[in-house]
Write a structure and sequence with these properties.
alpha/beta; Rossmann fold; 3 domains; six-stranded parallel beta sheet; 16% strand; globular; binds thiamine diphosphate; binds magnesium ion
Length: 577
Amino acid sequence: MGAGGPTSVAAVNGNELIARILQREGVEWLACFPNNPLIEAAARIGIRPIAFRHERGAVMAADGYSRVSDRRRFGVVAVQSQAGAENALGGIAQAYADNIPLLVLPGGPTTGQMPVRPNYSAVRNYEGIVKSAEVLLKPADIPAAMRRAFAALRNGPPGPVVVELTADVCAQEVPDPDGGTALDRYAPPPRAAQAPAADAVGAAVDALLEADRPVLWAGGGVLFGGATDQLRRLAERAALPVFVTMQGKSAIDETHPLCLGAGGMTTTAPARAWLDRADLVLAIGTSLTRTPYGQRLPGGATIVHNSDDPADIGKDEDVHVALPGDAALTLSALLAELDRRVAGGDAAAAARVGMRADVEADIASARADWLAAWEPALSGATEEPGQPLSYYRVIRALNDTLDRDASIVTHDAGAPRDCLVPFYAATTPHSYVGWGKTTHLGFGIPLAIGAKLAHPDRFCCNVMGDGAFGMSGTDIETAARSGVAITTVLLNNGAMATYPIGSPLDPVTARTEYGVTHMGGDYAAIAEGMGAVGIRVSTAEELEAALTEARARNAEGVTVLIDVAANVEARRSPASL
Ligand SMILES: Cc1ncc(C[n+]2csc(CCOP(=O)(O)OP(=O)(O)O)c2C)c(N)n1
Ligand SMILES: [Mg+2]
């Protein structure tokens, strides 16, 4: 905490004080779109403002930064009042649905104008898509408001936190009743991890040892809790097959012999098979939300549920054992309890830990069958020479060409998400960012920018469709201008593969007579026109060469867009081939 800077300053106005507090909290950059006076106050003390081309993108970049920072650092975004605050809404809703902590600082009207129509009140209008939101009413309240904001970011359920910067309040000098400076009154609130009760941990291990076919279900809370080692250790000790949710993807190395794979709307065949048969689901760091973008739980299974947010427990499912608290502490407690029982000569515990080889062999065989069935798609054998590249052949190229341990890959909404989630094999924590319960098209570009700011040493690559590009494509210019070099792989099919032709979702008349869902463009040329390198590819070999070039160009600070002539991919795992 505290990125330097003076501990006390002469009299400051509200914006300057907030900038100093951000600095004390270690904030190094600010996603923004002018004009909000905080942007200038931040820039003057060395917090780097990065202006996006749309406020939704600024929020999404802050979100991307938070997603790969495990509640140690937070994305912060400042937008202006009215239109800026209104435009930010979609990005905040996306972060809320995925439980992402980020700090949103929209400008607000003056206190006198607050109740007057049509002045936009962020606090009132964001209700329902934020963890907390407050409006500043007095300059002297700023340190306490910011303390509440950072306490909410660090602790309890993660989510977007809003402090609305009332124009006249933030322009005033901040008095200090104690005669010091207002900054002296700001102390960063600590992080406080909570652990579940010992009897609940015991009941969870009882349930585990009674089960015949348990599955360990890992969500995004495992990543946010820094609990990936504990997850692997418990899985290995208790011989537990591991399923990761879309948000939890990369919480375990997907090449680990106990990993069943990841799942959102689509998943691997082993994951679905094990979930269908499971008689116990040990769910860690997950909201267990019922959503089209998540796999369903097996009917009738015993559910043991851990989440950082006690309100998740029982929200959508009947839960047998509740373990509210931090994922790392919970996993460690479960492992310690299991070890205690093994050491005490508990026969069921000993039997459980002896099963690993058999469980791994079963998973390996199911995995081999699934991959063999998909090999024609992954190898591109299903496409004739000269036909557009299949999405699965693109994923094979990504898996083969990237240094996956040192990359951060993410999908976009639609077919890129549904094809990547089962088949791109994430290795190290955050080597993949899985996202999307409301699933905003176009998140991939700003997300990759935020991820690159958090991890400049990693290759940050978003895979998106042509439809998605329309929602955020101009932020390629943001990446190029800022030297935050990312690579976009654009699957250009001139269509929306998520609504396949001939499927019940196909808008036949609107498509054939009016061109709805068809769109086009020379995206490589557009990227070039915005200061990036654009590469057009139509074969797997060209794509692999382009990915290698992209890595080299990104390392030089140059942003790259690879425009792939791609098919209208309709195949989804595990259901259709
Ligand atoms: C903001 C927003 N509007 C609408 C949707 C619904 N939606 C999901 S995927 C999709 C089509 C995506 O097309 P494209 O980006 O070309 O990807 P493809 O499926 O063709 O690979 C739409 C409209 C969404 N996810 N986000
Ligand atoms: Mg498309």
